[in-house]
Amino acid sequence: MGGLEEEKHARYIVSVEKKKDDFEALLIEHLRMNGAYWGLTTLDLLNKIGAIDVDEVVSWVMECQDKDCGGFAGNLGHDPHLLYTLSAVQVLAIVDRIDVLDIGKVSDYVAGLQNDDGSFSGDMWGETDTRFSYCAICCLSLLGRLSKINVEKAVNYIVSCKNLDGGFGSAPGGESHAGQIFCCVGALAITGSLHHVDRDLLGWWLCERQCKDGGLNGRPEKLADVCYSWWVLSSLIMIDRVHWIDKEKLTRFILNCQDKDNGGISDRPDNAVDVFHTYFGVAGLSLMEYPGLKSIDPAYALPVDVLLSSHVPSSYH
Amino acid sequence: MHGRPRKDPRPKDAAAKAAHLHDLQAQLLQNHRNRTYTKEALASCSKLLEINPEVYTPWNYRKLALQHNLDGVTDPDAVKSAIEDELRVVEIALRTNPKSYAAWYHRKWVLGRRLMPVEFEREFRLLDLLLKADQRNFHGWNYRRFVAKLKNVPDEEELKFTKKMIDTNFSNYSAWHNRSALLSHLLKKKSQGFDSKKNTLTEEYELVHDALFTDQSDQSGWFYHLWLLDQTVCLDDPQLISSWPTHKSDLILSKSNKIDGYQLFPSSNSSSFSLLHTGTFPIILYFNKAVKNIDSSTVSVSSLFVTNEDLNWRPLSTNNSGEACCWVTFLTVPEENCSSSTSYPVEVCLDRYKDIVSSNVSDCKNPSKFTFTVTFRSHSLEQTSKESVEENVVWNYVDICNPQESPCLMSFDQLSINGDHAGEGFKWNLQILSNEIELFREFNDEDSKFVKLTLARLLVAHDLMVPNGSHNHIKSHSGEVLTLYDDLMKLDPSHKRYYEDEQSMVLMDQLTSDKDSLIKHCWQFDEPTSSSFHRQYCLRLNDLSLTRIGSVKNILWVQMLDLSHNKLHSVEGLEALQLLACLNLSNNQISSFTALEPLKLLSSLRVLDVSFNMIGAHTIDTTRYLCSSPLSHTLDAKQLNVGYEKETTEVCDRWEVTLLFRALRLTQLDIKGNAVLNEKFSVLATELLPSLKWLDGKRVR
């Protein structure tokens, strides 16, 4: 079966950037900011970020910022949204250029989206979802401005989305879903609130996501998909239950989803690759300590060295 | 992009399709920028959303357009037609992508504005169609909850809907989930028809049995069954289940002149226990679940030598929640009392027990109290105390044997409230459990992992409701459970370590909850050496393949604990052992300093052996977010900066090791055989542990 095709994946990611005009690329044109985050993080984990023109990245990111409200759009001409504001901040953190931001303005935008019940809207139109709670909390933490929101209310809202199977949904009453669980557990981790999680109950639900083929699914009785390698693994690590799954089988599943000819990783073996799954595959392998990869932090979804340089006094790294 | 084959042949018109999409997107962004909200512009936007429903900006644009076009419009038909247009665009978009977040939200937004009465018939029809196409579409289920709330549909009605979906297909986790959420509301409210938890649960067990035995490998019903089990056994209100000192125990305290020494004496009489630590001893309360509000107003300690108000109760937990299963306070005996040899009674009483609440806001329902006596002995201990703290403790057992008498300090039957666990109120719960156990035993010959796992859980739950002490005639099932987990490891090797962890908890319980079994693991030095540590009972739970700690409530009295040669990767739970002075964790699988965080709470710990573990061997730290750290905002990064010398900063896991060692008052540390070690480590350890005398068997001070 062979190992991870580091070189090919790095080449694939750089090449995707250049294919802007085919149909598939156009469908996701509006979330290019997420794409930039997935691509750059993957390159960094593969130790191949040197090929990137940092100034070009930074100036494009800053062009996506809404000059009035301070939030970031998914691409030029689109509207600002929390999903892309977090990605923008993460991208700037990876290239170590947070200093270009007007931190007060960006953090005001994020903090301004908190609702009375502690939840967060994704943008001015008011859709609420625990995904946005994560985006806001992670983003403000990276900016060192968590104090701008009511953290206690934010945590209580997330806890109100906890289900009887130990997992979390998008809103109170919503069904548990591994992606949503990552968001809620991640937000609780960043705010030092993991005591709200029933770690044994959730841990069992999460470890039962491992299917016969070794891959992980996102909900019971669903097919395995490489992206859940990230959502499930990171959640299991944060609650110290990652040993409950079979890492060898999962590693094999991810490696089997590689396009060995042209690079990139797909959702399942022999499917079409994309940047999203390439990132989640590589990040999943990093969480399983695959040799040669940088370590990624399970809560902030950033390479550990990037995170430490922003959160821990310099004498420690 | 999901489920698209890698070798998908490009359709011939791919280029034309792409160009069309490109034009529509460009047009949309232009109209958005120019605030053009004409019919043509909206039609072009609709075409775009039909192809690409997930792109969010066009939906925002439509909201602006609707607001703009309806501004000042009073004609109800015009309003209706505009709303109709929006609802139709959503329906078309959902046909392309029924999981489009943006499309679903647009519909909620439009209806939520209440510009016209909601046609609920239509919404439920749409939902029926979508949930027929995909029974698990969680957007659909979310939307159903939204519409039901908008229409004020009673929970009872929605519950019937979940039943209908389950009857169509047992394998519908979404329906089971919604059922569990609705039922727990109804049970909590005690709505009509749901006022008897017993009846409701009995019916639900019947429903889920049908699902379970139709397809034993389908997960949906099993998770629901686990929830029912939890509902059956859960005691909502917190209870005090263990304490130290135990009820009716006699404590003998002896005073010596050593400042920080620990002198311990085997007592002359088998019902007493003695210790001394500068005239201070702990009172430990252990509850069945994490509680808050333990302080001198909710718990009173009455004795001649302390003022209750001076007592400071502390939760034993590694987080900042202010909640814990285990709470401690320290009593300091005034100098003048130490010389007398009178016995002083001490009474600990949960006075305002209703103010003691758990995280689900249930309060204690029962008053609890316990009493013990303290006797002071003034005899001199000089001959043993002289060198005691100076000596390196060696964990060899050449000179030790099982004690003649039991250490007599175990906490069996110590609390008068214990017997109520199995009282009248729990009869039906136990009956349900027994029925389930019987049922699953019948099916256990088939090799279904869920049958075995559920049976194991049922048996554990049963044993938990019937504590050994109160109902001796009912035998513990731990032997059967251990065998079930052995089977499971073979049957489902991918989850082996989950079963090991579960098995470990059962094994710990088996070893510690029965006096006869515990005594086999208690050792005492035959011929005491000069070290004071060797004069106490040592609990040896070594070489048992334990992977995690359980049942600490049974061993609160332990001062010397040997857990070496197990497979421990976590020491959670040990924080309750407030008397622990010597701990041997060598030859386990502890992989980081953060995993040792619970030890920070052990103020009596002096001797620690963590040699031959895996500290520093992993790049991913699985306990980083469970301990205080700047990453989780539970520690101010500035606090870390209080320094040590530059040349010692070459050790990995630096901040974690700094935080851990600063909190410990060790005199002896064994840490060899870990990946973290390098030549600078010993300098760092000595620096961070000012009281350290011995490091890896070598004298450092």
From TrEMBL, chain A:
Cofactors (names) = Zn(2+)
The EC designation for this entry is 2.5.1.60
**Stored InterPro entries:** PGGT1B-like (IPR045089), Prenyltrans (IPR001330), Ptb1 (IPR026873), Terpenoid_cyclase/PrenylTrfase (IPR008930)
Q: Which GO terms describe its cellular component?
A: Rab-protein geranylgeranyltransferase complex
Q: Among its keywords, does the record have Zinc-finger?
A: no
A Gene Ontology annotation in the biological process aspect, one of them, is: gametophyte development
Quaternary assembly: Heterotrimer composed of the alpha subunit RGTA, the beta subunit RGTB and REP; within this trimer, RGTA and RGTB form the catalytic component, while REP mediates peptide substrate binding.
Function (record text): Required for male fertility and root tip growth. Catalyzes the transfer of a geranylgeranyl moiety from geranylgeranyl diphosphate to both cysteines of proteins with the C-terminal sequence -XXCC, -XCXC and -CCXX.
Please give the name of this protein: Geranylgeranyl transferase type-2 subunit beta
Species of provenance: Ensete ventricosum
Q: What is the lineage of its organism?
A: Eukaryota, Viridiplantae, Streptophyta, Embryophyta, Tracheophyta
From TrEMBL, chain B:
GO cellular component, alphabetical, reads: Rab-protein geranylgeranyltransferase complex
- Gene Ontology molecular functions: Rab geranylgeranyltransferase activity
List the source organism: Ensete ventricosum
What's the EC number here?
2.5.1.60
Q: Which reaction does it catalyse?
A: geranylgeranyl diphosphate + L-cysteinyl-[protein] = S-geranylgeranyl-L-cysteinyl-[protein] + diphosphate
Give the record's keywords alphabetically.
Answer: Leucine-rich repeat, Prenyltransferase, Repeat, Transferase
What InterPro entries is this protein classified in?
Leu-rich_rpt (IPR001611), Leu-rich_rpt_4 (IPR025875), LRR_dom_sf (IPR032675), Prenyl_trans_a (IPR002088)
Tell me which SUPFAM superfamilies the record gives.
L domain-like, Protein prenylyltransferase
This chain's protein is named Geranylgeranyl transferase type-2 subunit alpha
Instruction: Give the function comment from the record.
Output: Catalyzes the transfer of a geranyl-geranyl moiety from geranyl-geranyl pyrophosphate to cysteines occuring in specific C-terminal amino acid sequences.
Family the UniProt entry places it in:
Belongs to the protein prenyltransferase subunit alpha family.
| A GO biological-process term | prenylation
